[in-house]
Design a protein that fits this description.
The protein is an alpha+beta fold. The chain contains four helices and 14 strands. Helix 2 packs across helix 4.
Length: 242
């Protein structure tokens, strides 16, 4: 089954529209549409209530078990989750309930706004993970010029559940979601920044730690002398710099 999906990816923000009438097959319900959007665009970044602002006792597994009756009572949503995650329709194990719960949280983080015969959406997605060695990116030369160079190394590392990321907003509207240890072009850790600090020709107007719903963080190293590159329009230093 294919759906008609129009979207735009700007940095780590996705926006677009989706029609519930697929190219073939039966019309999709709202939950199925949300899964269709996430399958194409990516999962939303959101403040996970199990880890932020305070981690819940028992973690996700305890929440999954206690919330299971509520999730199952919503028959349409539950059926869509079970189908999407390829789970049995019979009683689930605790591990399978956790799969349902994680999908349920993602669905709640994605809002579809109805307009006419379709729906529109806009949300922050996880950082781009499809950069490959050899792909051309923007980097900065030692004398401050912006030039295109290939990525010579791409790396990632696993993070534990509840890993916190820095979400900051600049006065000119640029936003960034990155690990606290990632460094700015002048060597400051993002986790050490505060509101009012200067950053890449602007100033930080909002700074917060948010729970990360991804399983890995990513970085790249561009060719050239500085190891600097632009992420979401903000100049950073690569953590992979030799």
């Amino acid at each position: 089954m294919r759906i008609a999906l129009a979207l735009a990816l700007l940095a780590t923000t996705a926006c677009g529209s989706v029609n519930p009438s697929p190219v073939s097959g039966s019309p999709l319900n709202v939950t199925q549409l949300k899964f269709a959007v996430m399958d194409v665009v990516g999962r939303p970044v959101y403040c996970d209530p199990d880890f932020y602002p305070i981690a819940r006792e028992g973690g996700e597994q305890a929440s999954a078990i206690s919330t299971y009756p509520q999730m199952k009572a919503d028959a349409e949503t539950y059926a869509a989750i079970v189908a999407h995650e390829h789970l049995p329709s019979a009683d689930l194990t605790d591990a399978q309930k956790l799969v349902v719960y994680r999908a349920w949280k993602l669905l709640r983080a994605l809002d579809l706004t109805q307009g006419g015969s379709g729906y529109s959406f806009q949300y922050r997605i996880q950082p781009m993970t499809d950069v490959r060695v050899g792909q051309v990116v923007w980097t900065q030369t030692a004398d401050g010029r912006r030039i295109a160079e290939p990525a010579i190394e791409v790396g990632s590392m696993p993070v534990p559940p509840g890993h916190l990321m820095v979400h900051l907003v600049l006065a000119d509207g640029r936003e960034l979601l990155a690990s606290p240890g990632h460094r700015t072009a002048d060597g400051r850790a993002l986790g050490d920044l505060q509101k009012g600090d200067a950053l890449d020709g602007s100033a930080v107007t909002s700074w917060e730690l948010v729970a990360y719903s991804g399983e890995r963080t990513y970085d790249l190293l561009p060719a050239g002398a500085t190891g600097r590159y632009w992420a979401d329009g903000i100049l950073l230093s690569s953590t992979l710099r030799r």
